[in-house]
Amino acid sequence: MAYLLIRHKTRDYATWKAAFDDFSETRRASGEKSYQIFHPDDDPNNLWLLFVWDNLDNARTFMANPDLKEVMDAAGVIEAPEVYFLEEYGQGTA
Predict the structure, then answer these.
(1) How would you class 89 by CB atoms within 10 Å of its CB: exposed for 0-12, middle for 13-18, buried for 19 or more?
(2) Cα separation of 77 and 4, whole Å?
(3) CA dist., res. 81 & res. 34, Å (int)
(4) Distance between CA 50 and CA 64 in Å, rounded?
(5) Is 93 within the bounds of a domain?
(6) Does 18 fall in a domain?
(7) What's the CATH code of the domain at 18?
């Protein structure tokens, strides 16, 4: 399984989320299968995004999309994102 992990800060979560939702069709067409959004309990605008992607090549191509920077700027992202392309080794339960 291929994953994309991104961390970045926003000015306002609600504004960011509206832009994120508006870009959902582009993400899906690029290979996104699902996503989760996390934040530290003391900072709701410090976002950690975990995506399941169909493959890492498509995730890398999506992240290189020039429209993405424009969308992130308009959404209020206030710092360069930290981006990690991950492959799964395994899963388990306690």
Answers:
(1) exposed
(2) 18
(3) 19
(4) 17
(5) no
(6) yes
(7) 3.30.70.100
Residues 28, 88: Cα–Cα separation, whole Å = 20
The number of helices, as runs of H, and strands, as runs of E, in the chain is 4, 4
Chain segment 9-68, per-residue pLDDT in tens: 999 999 999 999 999 999 999 999 999 999 999 999 999 999 999 999 999 999 999 999
DSSP for 23-50? THHHHHHTTEEEEEEE--TT-TTEEEEE
Radius of gyration for the alpha carbons in the chain, expressed in angstroms and rounded: 13
Look up residue 80 and give its two tokens.
């360069």
Question: What count of residues does the chain have?
Answer: 94
49: which 2 tokens?
A: 């995004």
Contact 33, 59 (CB under 8 A): no
